C-alpha cells in the first residue's frame, strides 16, 4: 500500500497531529519552517511538523510557569483523577497509538502494543502515587516545638525524549511530573514526534489544564539551550546518549537544576554453565532483539560459559534464524526497519569488526538501507567493537568465558552501568553476581526487566536518578523542613 494508505491505519484522526502544542493551543512555526516525519519502512512522508522559533518555545516555558501555582495547589487526588482519565483514553485508543508508533518508528506492531501498555502503566502508577507524597513529623529535641518535613513540587520541568520508545519514554517523565504538581514542557525526538503530540491531544481531552503540559518541536540545539539556560526551569529529565547528557548537565549547572539522566548502556548478559538452557535462550532473545535491538538496556554483550556454550549456540541460532524481517505493520513481523540508514551502517561496522577478529557468522549478515536482518556471530573476541560500543541493532555476538571471575571482569570492563543480565540456577551465583556487577539494574533469568512499578536507572556513565515507582515521583519533589516554635 502507498503512504496515504499506511497513514490511514490511524482511525481517530486527531491523534495524527501536524502542529506543536503550546499553552493549550495547536500552533505552527512562526517562520513557516517544518520538519519531515518519514516512515522508516517506506521512506515516505507521514507528515510535517513545525520547527518552532525560540520565542514560541519560550512561550511554552512561560505558560508552564503561569500554570504552575494553580496546578501545584490542585489536590493530589484530583491530579490523580485526571491522570486516570488519561489512562482510560490511552487504552481506548490503544490500537491507533500502536499503529502510530510503528508508522513513525518502524518497530513491529506487537512491540508497539507492548510500548503502549508499558507507557500507560506509568500513567496508572502515578495516578495512584499522586496522593502518596507524604510528609513526616520529626520528634522535637526540646519542648514547645513541632518539626515536620513536607514534599513540594519542584516547579517547571522539561523533558527531552528519544526516538526508540516515543510514547513510553515521555509518559514515564510526564506522569510523575504532573502527579507531583509540576508542569512540563516536552521536546520529543524530531524523528518520532507524533506519539508525543498524540499524548498531548489525549491529555487535553482528559482535562489537563492549558500550560500544564506542552509539546514543542524544532531544533534540538535551540530548544536544549533554552531549556538549560532558563531560570524558570527547575528540573530537566533526559533520556539519550551519555555525550549529550554530559553537555546538558554542564549547561544546567549555572542554574543548579534538578536532573534525571538515563544515558548510554552497554549491558552484559552472563550465562553460566548451570543455567536452564531454554530459560537462557528465551531471556537472550528478549534482551537482545526486543525493539529490533534498539533499546538502552539491550544485551549488548552476551558471555556464555564454555560448558553450556555449544548447546546454547545451537538453540539460540535456531531461534534467531526463525525471526521474520519485514514491515512493522504486518502482525507476524519480528524485526522491522531500523530508525535510519546510519543505524544500519553502525550494525554493519560492528559485524565486520567481529568477523575480522575471528568471529563466525551463523545467521543473518549485512543490512541495506534501513533493513537489518537479525544476525548472530559466535566466537567473538572479548575486545571486539560490539563489546565496547552500544550496537543498537539486531546483532548478537557471543563471547565464551571460563570462570565466574572472568565473567564479572568482562561485565564490569565498561564505563557504563545501566542494566545487566544473569542466567543461572545457583542461588549463590545469582546472589554474588547481583552484588558484583556494576549496574543499576540486574535481570535474573529474564530479559524483560522494565516495569513502571520498579525504579529504572543506572550508575557510572549511564546516568543519575530513577524513573518508575515511588522513586520516580521523588525526582519531581523537594523536601521542605519546617520548625514551628512557641507551642
UniProtKB/TrEMBL annotation:
EC annotation from Swiss-Prot or TrEMBL: 1.2.1.16, 1.2.1.20, 1.2.1.79
Matching Gene3D superfamilies: Aldehyde Dehydrogenase, Chain A, domain 1, Aldehyde Dehydrogenase, Chain A, domain 2
PROSITE patterns linked to this entry: ALDEHYDE_DEHYDR_CYS, ALDEHYDE_DEHYDR_GLU
Domain Aldehyde dehydrogenase: 26-482
Alphabetical list of InterPro entries matching this protein: Ald_DH/histidinol_DH (IPR016161), Ald_DH_C (IPR016163), Ald_DH_CS_CYS (IPR016160), Ald_DH_CS_GLU (IPR029510), Ald_DH_N (IPR016162), Aldehyde_DH_dom (IPR015590), Aldehyde_DH_Superfamily (IPR050740)
Key words of the record: Oxidoreductase
Keyword check for Oxidoreductase: yes
Signal peptide: none
CDD domains: ALDH_F5_SSADH_GabD
Active site: 262
GO molecular function, one term: succinate-semialdehyde dehydrogenase (NADP+) activity
Protein origin, superkingdom: Bacteria
Family indicated by similarity: Belongs to the aldehyde dehydrogenase family.
Protein name per UniProt: Succinate-semialdehyde dehydrogenase/glutarate-semialdehyde dehydrogenase
Protein source organism: Sphingobium lignivorans
Amino acid at each position: 500500500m502507498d503512504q496515504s494508505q499506511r497513514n490511514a491505519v490511524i482511525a481517530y484522526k486527531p491523534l495524527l497531529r501536524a502542529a506543536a502544542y503550546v499553552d493549550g493551543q495547536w500552533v505552527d512555526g512562526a517562520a513557516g519552517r517544518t520538519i519531515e516525519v518519514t516512515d522508516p519502512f517506506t521512506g515516505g512522508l507521514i507528515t510535517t511538523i513545525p520547527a518552532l522559533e525560540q520565542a514560541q518555545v519560550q512561550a511554552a516555558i512561560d505558560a508552564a510557569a503561569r500554570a504552575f501555582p494553580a496546578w501545584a495547589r490542585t489536590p493530589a487526588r484530583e491530579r490523580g483523577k485526571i491522570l486516570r482519565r488519561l489512562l482510560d483514553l490511552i487504552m481506548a485508543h490503544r490500537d491507533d497509538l500502536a499503529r502510530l508508533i510503528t508508522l513513525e518508528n518502524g518497530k513491529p506492531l506487537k512491540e508497539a502494543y507492548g510500548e503502549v501498555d508499558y507507557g500507560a502503566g506509568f500513567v496508572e502508577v502515578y495516578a495512584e502515587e499522586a496522593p502518596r507524597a507524604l510528609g513526616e513529623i520529626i520528634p522535637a529535641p526540646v519542648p514547645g516545638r513541632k518539626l515536620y518535613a513536607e514534599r513540594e513540587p519542584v516547579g517547571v520541568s522539561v523533558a527531552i525524549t528519544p526516538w526508540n520508545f516515543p510514547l513510553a519514554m515521555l509518559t514515564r517523565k510526564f506522569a510523575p511530573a504532573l502527579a507531583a504538581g509540576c508542569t512540563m514542557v516536552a521536546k520529543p525526538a524530531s524523528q518520532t514526534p507524533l506519539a508525543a503530540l498524540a499524548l498531548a491531544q489525549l491529555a487535553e481531552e482528559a482535562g489537563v489544564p492549558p500550560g500544564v503540559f506542552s509539546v514543542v518541536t524544532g531544533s534540538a540545539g535551540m530548544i536544549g539551550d533554552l531549556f538549560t539556560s532558563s531560570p524558570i526551569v527547575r528540573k530537566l529529565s533526559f533520556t539519550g546518549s551519555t555525550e549529550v547528557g554530559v553537555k546538558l548537565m554542564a549547561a544546567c549547572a549555572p542554574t543548579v537544576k534538578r536532573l534525571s539522566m538515563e544515558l548510554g548502556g552497554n549491558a552484559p548478559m552472563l550465562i553460566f554453565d548451570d543455567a536452564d538452557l531454554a530459560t537462557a535462550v528465551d531471556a537472550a532473545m528478549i534482551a537482545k532483539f526486543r525493539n529490533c535491538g534498539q533499546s538502552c538496556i539491550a544485551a549488548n554483550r552476551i558471555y556464555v560459559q564454555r560448558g553450556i556454550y555449544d548447546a546454547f549456540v545451537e538453540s539460540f541460532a535456531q531461534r534467531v534464524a526463525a525471526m521474520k524481517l519485514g514491515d512493522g505493520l504486518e502482525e507476524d513481523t519480528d524485526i522491522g526497519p531500523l530508525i535510519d540508514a546510519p543505524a544500519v551502517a553502525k550494525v554493519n561496522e560492528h559485524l565486520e569488526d567481529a568477523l575480522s577478529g575471528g568471529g563466525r557468522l551463523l545467521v543473518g549478515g549485512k543490512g541495506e538501507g534501513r533493513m537489518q536482518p537479525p544476525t548472530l556471530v559466535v566466537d567473538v573476541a572479548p575486545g571486539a567493537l560490539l563489546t565496547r560500543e552500544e550496537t543498537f541493532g539486531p546483532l548478537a555476538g557471543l563471547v565464551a568465558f571460563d570462570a565466574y571471575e572472568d565473567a564479572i571482569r568482562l561485565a564490569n570492563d565498561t564505563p557504563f552501568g545501566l542494566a545487566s543480565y544473569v542466567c543461572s540456577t545457583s542461588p549463590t551465583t545469582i546472589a554474588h553476581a547481583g552484588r558484583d556487577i556494576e549496574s543499576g539494574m540486574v535481570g535474573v533469568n529474564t530479559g524483560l526487566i522494565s516495569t513502571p512499578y520498579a525504579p529504572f536507572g543506572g550508575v557510572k556513565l549511564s546516568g543519575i536518578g530513577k524513573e518508575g515507582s515511588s522513586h520516580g515521583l521523588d525526582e519531581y519533589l523537594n523536601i521542605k523542613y519546617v520548625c514551628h516554635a512557641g507551642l
